[in-house]
Here is the input.
Amino acid sequence: MRFRYTWIIPAIILFISCNSGSRCYESTDTLMVATFTGNNSNKIDTFTVRGYGRNAVGDTLVNTSDSVLVRKVGLPLSLTADSTGFDVTVNGKSCVFWVKHTMNLQLISQSCGFAPYYKLTTTRHSELIDSVKVFDQDVNPKSVERHATNGQNIAIYLHLTAN
Here is the structure.
């Protein structure tokens, strides 16, 4: 009889400790949703985005050769600096843009941990970029959901020439 109780008690403890309440069901990925648009219906044929000064293998954030009028991507922002730069190559031409931002960490939940929340403050860009428009300066884990519903944080308008 004692043997039966000594086996049941650890089984109950094991069952209770394996509850599903400790799983994370919320996103902690924080990406700035950006759209790149060519001028005068010029298509974006080849498109590559890297972090500024990041040229090593594996540092490419986006690399595609689909021909489209508008390209929408999610881009990570820096956790350690107050600005983030991106090297963009479009149709064989390179440009750079920077986004200045503030960041604070917010607790999502005990099981998910913390996620960065950003507020975009200013932008700068080089020649190939005609202009940058900020639509939503708040970048947080919900920005990825906006990506799925055609939302965006910023729009980058490119000065492309016909091939």
User: Anything to note?
Assistant: Residues 22 and 91 are 47 Å apart (CA to CA). The mean pLDDT is 83. The longest strand covers residues 93-109. The longest helix spans residues 2-17.
